[in-house]
Write a structure and sequence with these properties.
Layout (H helix, E strand, L loop, with lengths): L19 H6 L8 E4 L2 E4 L6 H7 L8 E6 L5 E6 L4 E6 L7 E2 L7 E6 L6 E6 L8 E6 L5 E3 L7 E6 L5 E6 L8 E6 L4 E6 L4 E7 L5 E9 L2 E8 L5 E3 L9 E6 L6 E5 L12 E6 L4 E4 L7 E7 L5 E8 L2 E8 L4 E2 L9 E7 L5 E8 L2 E9 L4 E4 L17 E10 L5 E9 L10 E7 L13 H10 L2 E5 L9 H4 L7 H16 L4 E11 L1 H13 L5 E5 L5 H7 L2 H11 L5 H10 L12 E6 L7 H12 L5 E6 L9 H18 L5
Keywords: Hydrolase, Protease, Serine protease, Signal
Protein name: Alpha/beta fold hydrolase
InterPro entries: 6-blade_b-propeller_TolB-like, AB_hydrolase_fold, Peptidase_S9_cat, Peptidase_S9A, WD40
């Protein structure tokens, strides 16, 4: 779950109907007061105080913008929210007016602009967060929308050929389980499956002549397999992988078609590589180059200009994005203007190759769009997203800390875990701050220093510090670190939270007796697991769409993603692995949870089914512990509708005030 969805506000969604007194009284595990209001189901969630709603209001009215691509008239296609959900907009000049183009109750995603001579874009849309996205085409000339996919399957990863005549996408349409690659003749809208080898596949790039298609099979964060499809014959040829297994992504043809660029952590000259580097290979000559060898961090994305004169890539350096642009064919890095320090979202060249648009999200400002003019090396800001009228100079910038954990690395030194530390400003001498530990999902995800309305409200309004660790298994810190929590090593990442609790107890400004844990998806599992091990040191926990039992999760998650999750967590069909799951799953250890718990869930979640939430709520209540439960019938894996995120954010803050800060 993304934190940008946690704190946005509408007063309408927070109208608290009926039975308020009874609900306020129902704070023990033995009594359950259930209320259904519209699409919201809650149990034991008390009335939200008006004073808290007032303080939250502006923090919940922050919003950002993401980049969807360049239109042919030099405008930027963006996604941002002005009502309940994120919709497509167009901006045609720096800080210009935003023209809203789509108006749906469900959010849109996968924005992809069609190349000329077409004049439009593709977008994806699901129903109630079920993630069975349907791809649609929006014609900018006529403002008409047409459905491209079958209306039933899960469809994603849209990609046009360079001339716009063909359109590739990933779909479960064939059997509902495998994610195949399909290619559509865009004029006739007739599609055919071109990769049906089983597993999870995506199209990466069409060759300049449109006769070949680069594809990748994704197995896990550390394992993927690239291939090439001849679109006339349908033949799929797989590329060899040095070392047999590697993480490979962002496969692109050079504009002359002679070479491919890609990102990989394959061995180089027989030497293992920790990080994913940008590489170029020329099959006809065998020439091979590593273009980012001097950067000891992962490369996250790359793009090539259509005129073939430049290439861009983004390196992820301790969580901060760095943009690099190379002139072609020399691969010489060119001068760029200074950029705001933060997280770089999608970046791409304008159709004429003369400009670059990119989204930048900083710790003190939501994601906004910037444009770089390559000839002048000048930067222009194109959007200025709202921060609810708040004084952004008061926002807290996190510091990066590293704390020691339980094991050692080469040489015997203690391994350290990186974490971002949001500390309230102007803390009076002698004050000990309550702490919320925010654990990311994935599990291969990475927390980065992006704008976080939750952290800002906690720091500025409640005087609560937030720690955001990247425990072992997080991406961005090398191949070895990524694999340290796999399968039977799963609980080693939980031990990293125990080590963070130790670190908190050693800080004079932090209150080790008032620590809460919060996380979504896999982070929700980490909350529950931390509570089973450290309830004596954790005062309360908030679990959002979290896994409570790995066996039931793997049995009930959607079939198209089951093998993907087995590759990361382990296979419950193997008796030895099943025994590990039985030992470590929070549901099997619910009797050890002795702290108040808040569980929030989307009813339509295809990844972590709502039954994972229901079963842990029932089990923890059997301990006599107070459990708040909240479920939205029109949401899936996380909350995307403003009214829902507002209500959840307010309820969570009330939960922290009661159970973390000593209100109860």
């Amino acid at each position: 779950m993304s934190l940008r969805h946690v704190l946005t506000f509408t007063a309408l969604a927070l109208a608290c109907a009926g039975t308020a007194h009874a609900r306020d009284a129902a704070q023990t595990g033995s009594e359950v007061v259930r209320q259904e209001q519209g699409n919201r189901v809650s149990e034991n969630v008390p009335t939200i105080p008006a004073e808290l709603l007032e303080r939250l209001n502006r923090y919940q009215n922050t919003r950002g913008a993401s980049f969807g691509g360049w239109t042919h008239d030099g405008c930027l296609l963006i996604a941002t929210r002005f009502a309940e959900t994120a919709q497509a907009h167009r901006v045609c000049q720096p800080l210009g007016m935003r023209e809203q183009l789509t108006f749906y109750p469900e959010p849109v995603n996968n924005l992809t602009v069609a190349p000329a001579p077409a004049n439009g874009f593709v977008f994806g849309k699901d129903v109630g967060g079920n993630e069975f996205w349907q791809l649609h085409y929006f014609d900018l000339a006529t403002r008409q929308v047409s459905l491209l996919t079958d209306g039933k399957a899960r469809n994603q990863n849209p990609l046009f050929s360079h001339d716009g005549k063909q359109f590739a996408y990933s779909s479960t349409a064939r059997n509902g389980r495998d994610i195949d690659v399909w290619v559509m003749d865009f004029a006739t809208r007739k599609a055919r499956a071109v990769v049906t080898d089983g597993g999870t596949w995506s199209a990466q790039d069409f060759s300049p002549d449109g006769k070949q298609l680069l594809v990748i099979k994704f197995v896990s964060a550390g394992e993927s397999y690239p291939g090439l499809v001849d679109l006339d014959s349908g033949k799929l040829s797989m590329f060899p992988i040095d070392g047999g297994k590697a993480s490979i992504s962002d496969f692109r043809f050079s504009r002359d078609g002679r070479a491919v660029y890609f990102v990989s952590d394959e061995p180089v000259d027989g030497k293992p590589q920790e990080f994913r580097t940008l590489r170029r290979h020329e099959p006809s000559t065998g020439k091979f180059e590593v273009l980012s060898a001097n950067i000891p961090w992962d490369v996250d994305q790359l793009a090539l200009a259509e005129d073939g004169k430049h290439l861009l890539f983004v390196s992820n350096e301790d969580g901060v994005g760095k943009l690099h642009v190379l002139s072609l064919p020399q691969h010489k890095e060119i001068k760029l203007p200074a950029l705001p320090v933060g997280v770089i979202g999608r970046a791409d060249f304008s159709p004429d190759g003369k400009r670059i648009a990119l989204a930048i999200n900083t710790a003190t400002s939501p994601s906004d769009l910037y444009v770089i003019d390559l000839a002048s090396a000048k930067l222009a800001r194109w959007t200025r997203s709202e921060v609810g009228g708040l004084d952004s100079t008061r926002f807290v910038t996190p510091s990066l800390i590293r704390y020691p954990t339980f094991d050692t690395v080469d040489g015997g030194a203690r391994r350290t875990i990186p974490a971002f530390y949001y500390k309230p400003a102007q803390v009076p001498a002698g004050t000990k701050l309550p702490v919320v530990i925010n654990i990311h999902g994935g599990p291969e995800g990475q927390s980065q220093p992006s704008f976080n309305a939750t952290a800002q409200f906690l720091a500025n309004e409640l005087g609560v510090a937030m720690l955001v660790p990247n425990v072992r298994g997080s991406s961005g810190y090398g191949r070895t670190y990524l694999s340290l929590d796999n399968a039977e090593k799963r609980e080693d990442s939980v031990k990293d939270i125990g080590a963070l609790l130790d670190w908190v107890g050693q800080q004079p400004e932090l209150d080790g007796q008032r620590v809460g844990v919060y996380g979504g998806s896999y982070g929700g599992y980490m909350v529950l697991a931390s509570l089973t091990h450290y309830s004596d040191r954790i005062r309360a926990g908030v679990d959002v769409v979290g896994i409570s039992d790995f066996t039931t999760f793997l049995n009930n998650t959607e079939s198209y993603r089951r093998d993907l999750r087995r590759a990361e967590y382990g296979d419950e069909r193997v008796p030895e692995m099943k025994a590990v799951f039985d030992r470590i799953s929070p549901l099997k250890n619910a009797g050890k949870i002795a702290s108040p718990l808040f569980v929030a869930q989307g009813k339509n979640d295809p990844r972590v089914p709502y039954t994972e939430a229901e079963q842990i709520v029932k089990a923890v209540r059997a301990n006599g512990q107070p459990v708040w439960f909240l479920m939205f019938n029109d949401e899936g894996h996380g909350f995307q509708k403003k009214a829902n995120t507002d209500y959840f954010g307010a309820a969570m803050m009330e939960f922290w005030q009661r159970h973390l800060m000593g209100g109860e």
